[in-house]
Amino acid sequence: MINLSLMSEKLFPEIVAIRNTIHEYPELGLEEHKTHDLLMDYIKKNIQYNALKKVGPTGIYLEVKGLKEDNGKVVAFRGDMDALPVQEAEYHEPRSKIPGVMHACGHDVHTAINLGAAKLLSDAREHFSGTAVFLFQPAEEILKGAMLFLEDPEIDFDKIQAIVGLHVSPEIYAGQIGVRHGPILASADKFTITVSGKGGHAAHPDTTHDPVLASAAVIMALQSLVSRQLEPSDAAVVSVCQLNAGIAHNIIPDSVTMIGTARAVDPATRDMVEEGIERIAQQTAQAFQCSAEVDYRRGVPPLISEKEWVDRSIDVGNKLLDEDGVVIMPIPSMGGDDFAFLKENRDGVFIRLGCRTPGGPYGSMHAPTFYCDPKSVDVGMKVIAGMALDYFEADFK
Predict the structure, then answer these.
(1) Which of 139, 126, 397, 181 lies closest to 308 in space, CA to CA?
(2) What is the largest CA-CA distance in the chain?
(3) Which of 171, 187, 236, 358 has its C-alpha lying 20 to 30 A from 334's C-alpha?
(4) Model pTM?
């Protein structure tokens, strides 16, 4: 019997110290060189691995295999490690020592958890059969890191049968994990709409085909996609977030450009939203004697967890955490994550890790006040290691 809780408790000070170092020296996407070197040094000195390689400029692929007769099972765990261009709140401890850069989304915690879970499994190799793969992924925030692993010719992703992602969540408390059956994150697509008309003097709008007025109508009409063309229980978002038009206060421009994001948790809804944006933009612009060109670019797909792996998360959480340690998330988040690229063609689950200190303030992700309770590191390590051991059918507590 593997006493995973005791092992994690003993390892915690060592791993949380590494997490604090990563937090104090955050690095932006594809620039995580110091983080990469720190992880590599620890892995080579402390983990009995079966495969280890650099992926892209800063990523790491690591395999830890059990010593019992191989059962052919392979499960992967993703831990992202890039920071954000955010200035951290002055009262935090630990606090970023890099001006204008901060781990405001908890990727330092994810990295430390992956490292700790790999160490736990390495120390318990004689008790299980199976292979645990750990992906230390750069550049999640710019949606470029996951593809580095998928496109690496030396990584055989076909052998990975399931994959698990974990992400901190300030909506739930440290000591808890959150899961839900089915969709948990949305797709995240980008659209650019260029409305073209005929410019002229603002004092004589009758001589123009005003693209500004047409664009305003397009923006308002786009909201009907969600409010009037979807089932009320279906989730989608269409947000116009950038608007560029004109060079002077008294000149109606020839064109207007708007840029936004579309989100959906159901693939069919995603298709409908894409078609609807193009249709509404073109037909609405035409009503104002203008034209619209739509450039719709798909980003990450919806992230959907399979029942087997959600149930496994619940069982592992109930076994390793305190009472009320597992929270069933009532609705999916409309945020996206490039973990969905890794997850798209295989079974798995996306786990929310509580990071808010009970009784403490709420600090939202991507904000200067975002904070992770250190307890979340211990919880994450043993839950991730426990997910592997449960899949490998090993005895643990």
Answers:
(1) 181
(2) 83
(3) 358
(4) 0.94
